[in-house]
Structure formats: structure tokens, C-alpha cells
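Tutorial sheet, problem 5. The four components below are modelled jointly, 594 residues in total.
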Amino acid sequence: MRVRDKLTDGLPAPTPAEAKIVQLLLADYPLSGLGTAAQIAKRAGVSDPTVARLVAKLGYASFADFQAELLAELEARLHSPLLMMEARRVPAGDDHVARAYIRSATRRMADFSDKVTPAIFDQVEELVMEAPGRVYLLGGRFSRHLAGMLAGYLGQFREGVADLGLCSSETFDRLVDMGRRDVLIVFDYRRYQSDVVRFSEQAAERGVRLVLFTDPWLSPVAAGALHVLVAPVEVESPYDTFLPPLAQVEALCTLIVARRQERIEKRVVEFENAREANGVTMSGATMSGAATKDRNS
Amino acid sequence: MRVRDKLTDGLPAPTPAEAKIVQLLLADYPLSGLGTAAQIAKRAGVSDPTVARLVAKLGYASFADFQAELLAELEARLHSPLLMMEARRVPAGDDHVARAYIRSATRRMADFSDKVTPAIFDQVEELVMEAPGRVYLLGGRFSRHLAGMLAGYLGQFREGVADLGLCSSETFDRLVDMGRRDVLIVFDYRRYQSDVVRFSEQAAERGVRLVLFTDPWLSPVAAGALHVLVAPVEVESPYDTFLPPLAQVEALCTLIVARRQERIEKRVVEFENAREANGVTMSGATMSGAATKDRNS
DNA sequence: TCAATTACGAAATGATATTGACATAACCGA
DNA sequence: TCGGTTATGTCAATATCATTTCGTAATTGA
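Model answer (C-alpha cells):
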């Protein structure tokens, strides 16, 4: 039963003081119930114990219990309209699964874009580009592909970038080469993989500075990480989405390029020349892509 | 200034503990900030005074002051649902590079989500899941990670999935095993890689059915492909984005799961058991993630 | 009008929260 | 490697809160 219903129908014969409180709580439901019991009492013009007695009468074990239910309702009310907001344009429901998924993921991205903390990107950018040692990349079963992608970009930006790939027994051998001067970038999303966590912990013990990409539930790696980049992953799908994490990766790369333009340009040009010379990319009618693409299209 | 803005931009260089709190508060904003400071501290894994110090740093006289503003915002939001739209404020222009990028990518995604053609997903789903032979995955320098990710998912859905990884000279040896019964899924975005194109063409000649993920300028592979999935890649960045392509990949997987539930569930459960038995994932307080995750958080 | 019952507030209490002071640990520059 | 600095947890003091107890006022039924 909803809290609101209990307020309206839960009391067969409310006393005058009770009526005052109920009226106040319903006035701008559910916000008025969010403060302390004392505040409610004062605003309703009754004494503190009367409020306590009321919630007890309504069947709650305590005022805290009552407030917890109120919060749960508020959460439901706050979450669903937010996520439905943009979906309403389309008579959702019998939409195609694929399009529904992309819409859902897009909404998640929009939600995420308002919660980005730029400062952490600055810090990670600084750490990764200034690290005197090497930069190692590690990921879980799926997230390792994010690691690989970031490794690909970083390799264009600086030397000494190493993608550890799949975490195997041999991977642990790499630990002996890792130390204070190095940085380890870990991707770990639920369900957190024990080998990734163990490797990260051992690296942290060796003084390696850790950067962690994870979900809001925080991988255990977070404990030893210097910087933690959190991204939402939930969508209307049995699987979690990697779109927000990928957005973080790409945003970080964009930031690095913006900050270290001169240093990177030289390096990228050399790469391009090497690739060109070996005919790696199609020469013909291709547009200038990647790092050198023109911006006017 | 809104509380949320202070959280995202109020700290030029948040300390690790501060970052933890900020992320928690943003995670399900603004509800997570409604409890007591002690609750927040416990959930963020920091001490009570650290929370108090943070709100002080953000310019609030006290924690109560901070919470009062939070409540005021919540009230405004609840009273006029239209205000929720206003939350999508227009960036001032001198926005941080990282956030500007994510906003840009989000807009690209929103644009893309209106242009999805569901039919092609159905066709690809059918082709991939019904193919009597094997399913091969191939990608370019960066896009091969998308291929790897899709390979990871597909491997859970059916047998005979092979990620070809980096296109090397040895990769071409695999051609001899490929034939009419097989499917090759190619990821090729500008700049199109000649080895990927050549491999795909030769596969097509052998009767392998091709599925191509590419950008609007169409990789040369498109000529011999049975199905082509196009996704926009341009953003406000020197690099192209892989967000829309990744969204396609994830949407395809979601579709497959939705269509082949029974068949897949058995397979996934077996995988899970094997992983469980070998302690691959953290056993403790981890939520049930991925395919078996619960949806009530 | 009276007595019994219920409602209610004042004060007290035990618990909890906030915040300041202090100490330790981590970090940074030399 | 070593001071100086900052960050952060521990402890303690104070304030506040929820809740119990008790006494009084209001209400009800005869």
C-alpha cells in the first residue's frame, strides 16, 4: 500500500492533531515528509511525539521506516518520468526491440552527460600523459575491448603503452616489470572478475598508480585506485551497456588531443606516413579520416 | 547555481575521497543526498567529516544548508514537471572538452536513434543465428574491438563463433575453411583498411555471406555484402566516434536474446556454471550481472 | 455535571548526527 | 631519500532527533 493511501484511508477517525499532520503531509506530497519529524511537527503545529504516534498508528515501525517508504516512492516517481520523458514522443510499447534498445541507451547517455565530472578527466589526462613509465591497460571479459580501444588511441599519443589483453596466468608475469613510475588503467564492470581484481591489487601494492573505469556499484579495485571513472550501464536489456564507458574513453582521448596537440601531431603524422608507405589504408577516394580528418562536412 | 553543477564543476581537482562522494551523490541524483551525512559517508566509504568538509568546500555553510538546497531543487522539479526539461541546459560554450564531447556524442546518438531501420536487424539476426556453418568476425585497427565484443556476445548465443582478431597474413589462411555455409561479419570504418577489404572480397568470392558494419560513406566491402549496417560516426572531435556502431552491436545482441530466449538461456546457464565453478567472477557481494542480472536496483 | 477515556504536549532520555580539533598517513617537490 | 604539505580518519564535544514517560486537557457517555 502506498504511503499516500495510508494517509488518506489508513485512519478511520483521525484526531484533530492527526488531521493537521496528515493534511500537511498531503499538501505537497511527498516532499513535506522528507525533513525530520520535528520539522513536520513544528510546521503542523503539533508536538513531536504526536508525529511519532501517527506513523506508529499507520503501521510503521518507526519514523525512519515511514520515511524510507516515502523515499522509495519518490525514487520510483523520479526515475520513471525522467527516463520516459523522451520516449514519450513515440508510442512506446510495441516498438521494435532493436530501436527500443537504442532509444533506451540514448536516454542513458543523455542522463549520463549531465553527470560528467570534468575534473577527473583532467586528472587522468595529466596522469596518463605525464607518467614517466609505461601505461598498461587491463579489462574483463567484455571490457577488455574497451581497454584495447583505449590502448590503440593512447599508443598514438605516447610511447610505452601496453595492452595486457586477456588476463591469463602469464599476464601476472608482467607484474615484475611494473612499478611506481607506471600507470595501470583497469576496466572492470559487474560482474567483477577475480583475476582482474587480483592483478590490480598486486599492481597497486607495487606502487603502480591505478585508474579504474567501472559502474556505479564500484569494482573492488576502486579501493586501491587513484582515480575512478564511473559510468551508468543499466538499460532496458538483459545485458548492461558499454556506451557510457566508451563515451568516457573517447572523451578522454579527445581531451588528450586537445591538450597535447603539438606533441601528438608529430607522432600521428609519423604513424600516418608509415601506414601510407605500407598501403595499410585504402588510398583512393577515401576521405581524410581519423586524426587528420577535416572538420567541415 | 544548481547543486548538481556545483558537484560536477565546483571542484577543480577533487581528491580521491571527494570524488567518491561526488560520484555517489550524482549516481542517483538527488535522492542519494537526502539521507543523513553519515549514511552518505558510509555508502561512499569515507568518514563522516569528509562529507562535511566536501559540502563546506562547495560553498555551503553546513550540511543542513546543502540538503536544504537539494530539497528546494527537488521541490521545483516535482512541482513543475516541465522544469525537468530545463535540466538539459545549453552548455555555455566554454564547456569542458570532455563534457562537450559526451554531449556531442549524445546528440549524435539521439539523431541516430530516430533513423534506425529495424528490418535490417531482423535479417542479420536471422542470418547469424541460423547460419549452418561458422560465424567469423573481422575488424580494422580500432573497429576490431567492436568485432571482438560482438564475438564475445555471439559466443554465448551459438557455437562456431570465431573472432579473427588482427588482420594479418596468417588470417588469410583461414579463408580455405570458409564457404557458403559461413557468415563473415566485418567492421570497417574510415579509413578503410586494405587488408580487411581484400579479405572480405575473397571471402565473398568463396560464397561466404557478408554482414558489414560501416559508416555513411560505406566501406568498399559494401559491394559484396549481403547486409550493411550504417551508423554515423562524426562528432566534435578529431576522431570519429564508435558509439553508434557499438549501439548497433548491443541492439543486435538484445534482439537475439529476445528472439531466441529458450535456446540461449540453456547455453548461458552452462557458461555461468562453468565460470562459477572456476571462481572467475567475484563471488561475494557482487550483484548478479549481465544475462542474469536482476532489474530492481 | 461527573467520571472514564482518550488526546496531546512538556520534559526526559537514549541514540544519532554534525562538526571541530587533533593525529596520522599519503603525497609532492626538492 | 627527505621535509613540507595536504588529505583523511579517529576522537570528542555539542547539538539535534526520535521516542518514552507522565501529567494535563479535552471529549464522551451517562
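Marking note: The beta strands of chain A are 135-139, 161-163, 183-188, 209-214, 227-230. Full credit if you identified this.
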